[in-house]
Amino acid sequence: MKRFILTCACALMSFAFASIYKANVHASYYAEKFNGRPTASGEIFNMNDYTCAHKTLPFGTVLRVTNLANGHSVNVRVNDRGPFVAGREIDLSKAAAYQLDMLSSGTANVRIEIISLGENTAQSVATANAASAQPVVASTAQKTPAAASEERVREQTTAPAVYVIQVGSFTKREYANELAQSLLKAGFTDVYFQKTDSVTRVVIKNVTDSALGATKNKLEAAGHKDYLVKKSS
Q1: How far is Cα 223 from Cα 56, in angstroms, rounded to an integer?
Q2: Hey, which residues does 35 pair with through a beta bridge?
Q3: Distances in Å between the alpha carbon of 155 and those of 149, 151, 191, 231?
Q4: Spatial contact of 42 and 135, defined as CB atoms under 8 Å apart
Q5: What is the value of pTM for the model shown?
Q6: Is the separation of the CB atoms in 136 and 178 below 8 Å?
Q7: Facing residues of 112 across strands?
Q8: What pLDDT, in 10s, does the model give residues 71-112?
Q9: How far, in Å, CA of 118 to CA of 124, rounded?
Q10: How many Cβ atoms are within 10 Å of 193's Cβ, its own excluded?
């Protein structure tokens, strides 16, 4: 009996501390096409996990999403950026979409509540939506945002970038993912996403002056001739 009361109390506390973020907004979901690919946080997307993509909320933020049409709810964790379609607020994993009974419709009107904010709460909503660089991870091993951040700092400290080569720029995330994966398969390293509000750029970073010529030749041999070389600051 005591255990039952404690469980109910915890559930009520969890509900009480959830705050409505947005109501009557559009949710969509992404699944098989992106399964196993890197997310903006550095994790590998698993469509069977309860995760989501949001444009601004800090990575690690836990949300309760409720389908307004049927009252079904699910808790998800932000680990990706998106959706990049006008009028949509959140992109859910397939597992989350199943819980909301929206697989057949593809989209749903939802209410979003914040249960807890992620680690980088100091990053405001405005700065979270600004341009940022995220590495493309070739391995299927998952990395936490903190671990990925430490790795990037360590790489930039030991091997400062001299040139950045922009290979492509896309308004659709799937096209950027496809180009990034093809570059990795071709043997290029330090492949990164640079994201803004409107586009996702695919770039190769940390190209030294001595390696610039060989990298350009390798890109052209692979059929990538419309690249842009910039000096790293």
Answers
A1: 35
A2: none
A3: 10, 6, 13, 18
A4: yes
A5: 0.47
A6: no
A7: 22, 65
A8: 999 999 999 999 988 889 999 999 999 999 999 999 999 999
A9: 12
A10: 21
